[in-house]
Design goal:
By secondary structure, this protein is α+β, with helices and mostly antiparallel strands. The chain folds into 2 domains: 46-178, no CATH class; 183-311, no CATH class. The protein has helices at 2-25, 32-35, 70-80, 131-142, 222-230, 279-293; strands at 46-53, 58-64, 95-96, 105-111, 114-119, 150-155, 158-159, 183-185, 193-203, 206-216, 250-256, 259-264, 297-302, 305-311. A 4-stranded mixed sheet has the order 4-5-6-7, covered by helices on one side. It has a 4-stranded mixed sheet with strand order 11-12-13-14, with helices on one face. A 3-stranded antiparallel sheet has the order 2-1-3, with helices on one face. It is globular, with a radius of gyration of 29 Å.
Length: 314
């Protein structure tokens, strides 16, 4: 009898220990201190860059950038623009770099908003068909950095004043006024209007922006030129797209320094019931006005009712 009692007590004690162990080592879901997990999601540092697309345009896309300091960022951008560089795996599908393979940056010099780049002589091995595109790609990619407004290109310490193959003269300072994917529609060299319009293009269901600079004798102001060119039936190339339909009308506009207020009819709506304007329409307008007029803030109205306000760092 005594043995049975001792055995029973030992069994109860053993079971109790097992239960305590289970509770200790495998706590239930009600214990927040044990189950609480802090998962931090870090958004990739993406930077706009201008590369050759599948249709041979210099197009705006994004790549992941590691650097945040200006000088290191410049080096990383130039590396990304160089053929078969260490950044080649970061380039999105459908895009390609343009600077000749093996080109080295000998030095960088910052003077206010001016960036001076000194390449080695490999830079001059650009082909005739690529030389204009290389300059455009460099200008547009590097001036996406807010502090850089203009660049000068040197090769082995000597200022590059002409393109290596065509011998075309280059401006002393290279800015976005140089243009990109240029079109010339001129009857005379006087009264030339320069506008850069951002269209859409697509590769493997991914949309991206393509800027096209037109040199014309168009008598209209730049806002009207931008809107008229973004209307669907005005696009001259089937590889370029715009979601702005031809029935859209710019009723009025106001300009105040770097801000533009545009008033449209209701055909600019992507959805009439929700009174929404598509992202593609909004940002083709914003990017086009930024490049063409230095506009950094755009207010979009429909029949005098404010619908949206967009801004971009200038």
């Amino acid at each position: 009898m005594l043995f049975k009692r001792i055995s029973k007590k030992l069994l109860v004690a053993t079971i109790a220990l097992i239960v305590i162990a289970l509770v200790y080592f495998f706590p239930n879901g009600s214990d927040p201190e044990v189950y609480e997990q802090n998962i931090e999601y870090i958004e990739a540092n993406k930077n706009p860059i201008y590369l050759r697309d599948n249709n041979n345009y210099i197009a705006r896309t994004n790549i992941i950038m590691k650097e945040t300091e200006t000088e290191e960022k410049v080096k990383e951008i130039i590396e990304s623009l160089t053929i078969n560089s260490s950044k080649k795996d970061y380039i999105p599908n459908g895009f390609s770099a343009l600077i000749p393979e093996g080109t080295k940056v000998l030095s960088l010099d910052f003077d206010g908003s001016l960036l001076k780049i000194n390449f080695d002589t490999t830079f001059k091995s650009i082909t005739l068909q690529d030389e204009e595109a290389v300059i455009e790609s460099l200008i547009y990619s590097l001036t996406e950095i807010n502090s850089i407004k203009k660049i000068m290109i040197f090769v082995d310490g000597e200022l590059l004043t002409r393109l290596p193959n065509s011998n075309k003269k280059l401006p002393h300072y290279l800015t976005r006024d140089y243009g990109i994917n240029k079109i010339y529609d001129l009857n005379t060299l006087s009264d030339c209007t320069i506008t850069t319009i951002y269209y859409l293009s697509k590769f493997n269901e991914q949309y991206y922006y393509v800027p096209v600079t037109t040199f014309s004798n168009n008598p209209n102001n730049k806002i009207e030129i931008v809107i008229n060119n973004l209307k669907g039936n005005s696009i001259y190339n089937p590889n370029l797209l715009s979601y702005m339909v031809n029935s859209v009308e710019l009723l009025s506009y106001e300009l105040e320094e770097s801000k533009a207020s545009l008033n449209f009819n209701s055909y600019i709506f992507d959805n009439f019931d929700d009174k929404t304007i598509s992202e593609e329409v909004k940002y083709t307008i914003l990017l086009s006005l930024k490049d063409s007029m230095g506009i950094s803030e755009v207010v979009l109205k429909v029949n005098d009712e404010e619908i949206d306000k967009l801004s971009i760092e200038n």
